[in-house]
Amino acid sequence: MAEVTAPAIEPADILWQDGVPESRLFGDVYFNRDNGLEETRHVFIRPNRLSERFAGLPDNAAFVIAEFGFGTGLNFLAAWQAWRNSPVNQRTTLHFVSAERYPLTREDLTRALALWPELQDLGNELIRHYPPLVRGVHRVLLDGGRVRLTLYFGDVLDAMRELEFTADAWFLDGFTPSLNPSMWLDDAILQIRHHSKPGTTLATFTAVGRIRRALTDGGFTMTKVEGFGRKREMLTGVIPESAFEPPEADARKPASIAIIGAGIAGSLLARNLAERGVKVLLVDGANNAGNAASGNLQGALYVKLGVEFNAQTQLALSALLFSHRYYAPYRNNGWYPTGLLQMAWGENEQQRQERFLDRNHYPPEVLAPVNAAEASNRTGIPVESGGLWYAHSGWLEPAALCKTLADHPNIQHCFGMEVQGLAKCDDQWVITGSGHDIRTDRIALCSGHQTPELASLTGMDGYFRFKPIRGQVSHLPEERIHSPKAVICGPRYLNPSNKGVCVTGATFDLHELSPRESVDSHRENLTELTTMLPELWKNEPPSETETEALEGRVGFRCTTHDYQPVAGSLDNLEGHKLDGLYLFTGLGSKGLTYAPLLAEFLADKLTGQPACLPRSLEKRVNPHRCYKMAKTEIT
Q: What residues does the FAD dependent oxidoreductase domain cover (predicted)?
């Protein structure tokens, strides 16, 4: 079968035999024809003692299961069901890490899971959140976030090298080793050992001697046990508690964390940590969440994917797809998935989109090319050019969403506090401001363009390569325009009407730092918008008097030197002892899209849970790349 152009990945070629899925490529069934669910329980659930171990988890703990070969997801659903049926503390998290080189299409997945009526509720939730078939890592939040599925579409060895996790239990699934030997290479066994710890267990269908010997050499104590059905034997294993040096003190979940900045980044991180059981103090100089650049009435959920499918494009795509899933519970309550048109505006953009479509294949559920007639029909207003249609994108109410996110029992607010000092004292951080001090184990700076100023309070003799970029939006009265029914992006963006207003913008002012609204900026927005959509206005475009009377808003984006976001720890930053200090900023004009994924990633790191970003993308957001030592003056 011909290889599909990146980023799309080749789906499984399924042959349905008597209602049971079989891989044409490997000539093997995905599960036992007689009773696949009971087989999964016999081979994986019971040998790994999952129900017993789930019940013994302490408060706010996480349990990690990893497997080779996601297949139909039956193993995952069986583990999830066992998790639900065990007396598990409500403040614990189940992580399931899986790789799949040939993922099932949504249609085949739906058909396969229909065979298990008792898993219907879980299966339906998985199907609703099942990611598009594009390469790389997909983090899927299920069961209200209590179950986190990390699904890697690609080669299993690539997955093991790229993913950061430590498994409590392994499901060594996959096809028969003789039919698929690449899944059982020594490298794979080494990766299993690398992602394990004392007490990690495993179970596998196979009882092949070379597999048992390789796992024994990898540190597992292996045992042959009774197999399922006609298969007489299978293998189980465990890494003895004495196999490693005593672990270092557990520094996973912080006892306390202060997040400075209650915009979209800080609010998302606070909510993510709070839902994992962490007590959070949310600090901001304003009187509520959702001010500064996150205070706009509307914002488009949008990225501009690169012509080349490189790491930058992969990060943008991962963020876009995760944000679609993350915001889904807020539909019609801060999130409006109307669809979004990226116009092929002007000769340069038309040529860029042609090259983009020629070099890449994306599943249509991610994006699809449309001509001018289709674009006009989908947006509801006449447009002069086609473009790329993102069916699952749309717009948000950032300010309202921030307030909703910040409302959680585990989030304490400290609003109206201007931070004046940050210092490390007796293994804790001290935040000074507004006449009192706050002591906390860790700090996350989510303060946008104010981040360099706050970071300088720590006494670092260097600086971060961040810069503020002013952006002004304009509020257009609905009665003056033909309001679109979907977001339109080009030289400007235009959102559908909300409460009688359509937001358009934003300017990109590199050298202007005034926080006041400018008539010139409104004029610039209207000129660009009219050129982009000449038939937008119901009558004539606004007169000069109307332009001067327009309302809008000014915000400042925080951008890095390489226009990539920042999310990570500042530990051991070129000699500085900054343990427990984190940065989450540099999101530019795409903060609404990047922030959910990067908040998830930073929460993973702060709690010591499996990371949702592969190592290659983690490097791209590392804050160390933005730090530069100050030059020493020569006297």
A: 257-604
